[in-house]
Amino acid sequence: MTKICTILLLLFSFWPTTAFAQATDAPETIDFVLDWVPNTNHTGIFVAEELGYFEEAGVAVNVQRPPQGSVTELIGLGNAPFGISFQDTMAHRLAGGLPITAVATILEHNTSGIISAEAANIQEPTDLAGHSYGTWNDPIEQGMLRYIIESEGGNFSDIQLIPNQADNSVVGLATEQFDSAWVYYAWDGFLADSLDVPTNFFYFRDYAEELDFYSPVIIANNDYLKANPEQAKAVIQAIKKGYQYAMEHPEEAADILLKHAPELEDQRDMVHASQAWISEQYASDPSQWGHIDEARWNAFYQWLWDKDLVEADLTQESHFTNEFLGD
């Protein structure tokens, strides 16, 4: 672990070293690191920034685009107090002792699943037999795919695994690099529509309730949370207000995202379509945005443990909290 942490510290040595040091000493600016290029998963954060919710809460938040490398590890190493991760991505880092906690879920349910070229006629997991799948070569990814295929009576070995080296999985489908891939529907589903790439899609959660994990989630550094609980609460509740606005005003929220990510302007129609859809996915009850259910959280980590996909039983400790969300 010590060797790993040393390597990671070197990896992230370019990151401003004052980011977390400021956070532990009543910082003037609190860094929040996105997981990917701006998209509709992030809209509530930009709404909070644009409409002054951070300022109203008495905090100044600097929303940062992700550096190269793992944002999850960056947060755990204390180079920034807040960031975005995923429950599956967190698993190996938590098993290795990385000090991070999920403090809110951005989406109520797992909206990821398998997208496929319409011509392949893949309607359900067993239909993947005889077709190619563009894989990230992640054991959890392949474990989930194997699980839903075999649960439905299929054979995982009937799939041709191909390294997913496409800039985007939809492009990989369009250029016939592979027939199917794992994507998040809110972005890639609408991207496929905007590019006139005919596709089919099914959710993991429809075939295994234990795969209805939380993704994406807002994470924070444990030392930061311990030293700055009131500040953390102010940040998270301002972000919650941003997502609640996006739920009630998807059109205006999409325009705010576009203002903060002008590179998306040529995809304006797709952004608005994605926002209209995802605004209904953030939470079924806006007052409960961000809330993580313990049973669902642990069901996924118990599944990982049962399938030997993680090095520790993560259900023995709590790695999330709802205490910063407020009423």
Automatic annotation (TrEMBL):
Coiled coil: none
Annotated ranges, domain SsuA/THI5-like: 39-253
Biological process (GO), any one: thiamine biosynthetic process
Keyword terms of this UniProt record: Signal
Keyword Signal in annotation: yes
Signal peptide (residue range): 1-21
Species of the source: Suicoccus acidiformans
Domain of life of the native organism: Bacteria
Transmembrane segments: none
Protein name per the record: Nitrate ABC transporter substrate-binding protein
PANTHER family according to UniProt: 4-AMINO-5-HYDROXYMETHYL-2-METHYLPYRIMIDINE PHOSPHATE SYNTHASE THI11-RELATED, THIAMINE BIOSYNTHESIS PROTEIN HI_0357-RELATED
Xref: Pfam families: NMT1 (PF09084)
